[in-house]
# Entry
Amino acid sequence: MKIFIHGLESSNQGKKSVFFRERYPDMIIPNFIGELPERMEKLNEVLSGNSGIRIVGSSFGGLMGSIFAMENEHTVDRLILLAPAINLIELSGYQLKGISVPVVIYHGKKDNVIPLEAAEYAARKHFHNLTFNKVEDDHFLYNTFNRIDWDTLLTDGVSP
# Structure
């Protein structure tokens, strides 16, 4: 099962959502609104009873996916995070723990929304099987997004 979790000020109609909907018709792409607890409640409902989950989370959606994986590690196969807001994870109010599922992060060196250093620090603290890609891009990763090997990341291929 594959899911894309959009960012705080985006929706399931944004560019990344449209890309995934067109390329991976079996991918779940819900729309999230409200504060973090409301969004997490909906995410838990959507993913309840599933396993083998591949989560793609963008920005705030990366924070949500990370929290879900920490609370449900046994159901998550892989996390792919795009400029994730994991710098906020300590302030989230959720129970945090280190996880060993494969995590692949793409974060722009020119990101002026989520500080690269803070995101990398949080990622290295909580993700024990991490590939952290620092790319020449900004927060939206428009230059990087289409060059990511999504077919490999979203199937049983090796994480880049």
The chain has a mean pLDDT of 93. The helical segments are 15-23, 36-47, 60-71, 116-126, 142-145, 150-153.
